[in-house]
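Protocol step 4 of 6: record predicted structures for both targets in the notebook before any analysis. Target 1:
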Amino acid sequence: MTYRRWIVVGMAVAVVGVLVAGFAIVNGTFSPRDYVQDRYTRAASRDIGRQAVAYTSSKSPTQVANDLTDAWRPADRYVDGSGVYLRYDDDSVVILPIAAGSVILLENMSTAYPRYHSIVGSYWGWGRGSTVRGGGPGSGK
């Protein structure tokens, strides 16, 4: 009886996995970066060098952030009067207000953290789920 139960549980897990994979393939969003690229308008004139790729939306920064975080939960989120700052494993999504909505900046964490450190400081907690080493004595060893 136990053997049969494990087969049923294994098949159920496999079916759920296939459904999740199928959903991701149909929606075409495998990351927060893909989500933004699929839903917002590319705005190359607002890029910051080669590091931060810009998109625009007619929605407010809060609305864009809520849409994105409903689909992809960030590791950290910081909000202040200047905008919404989302940290994911490898990427950051910074959503800033503009006159007609928002500008959404996609950037690798390796360049985003130094750029926005004065704003996000310790709010983007490097110690929680991050692969970056550093900190106090003995850390990262």
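Target 2:
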Amino acid sequence: MVDKSQLLDELRLAVGSVPDYARTLTDFYNGIVHKLVSKMNNQFSVCLYETNVDRFIQVAFAGLSPCEEVIISFGEGLHSIAAIRGEMVFKVEGEMQLIIAPFYYGHHLIGVLSFQIPVANYEISEDDLVFIKEVTRFIESNYKYYK
């Protein structure tokens, strides 16, 4: 496997290229999740959820199946914890590493990125968490062009 900093740099370039071809918000979201798993040979899953009145609804998915539930009610699980705290949540449950990263438009929650990564395939480090935060900021800064 390539060294981690090189991998993250390649992913930054790949994710950064999504607005070059995405014409709709759906294209943008799908492009991001597919780019995030592209260099990892689908060894994990990434889901992107938008918020609705009282739930998170999965609008984009890439990687190993199944990712998570398609609809997650507010108040249930790590998605709501990340949204309430306004920051990324990282948790290891058994052999799975879970990362939930919220993103916003101004102070309004737009959605969350959700990662499920087997410990055996990839060990999450601080560099990975910084990268995921960069991706959520990228979504936030480009959201206005698609809404």
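Step 5 preliminary note on target 2. The longest strand covers residues 108-118. The beta strands are 45-51, 55-63, 71-73, 89-93, 96-105, 108-118.
Proceed to step 6 after PI sign-off.
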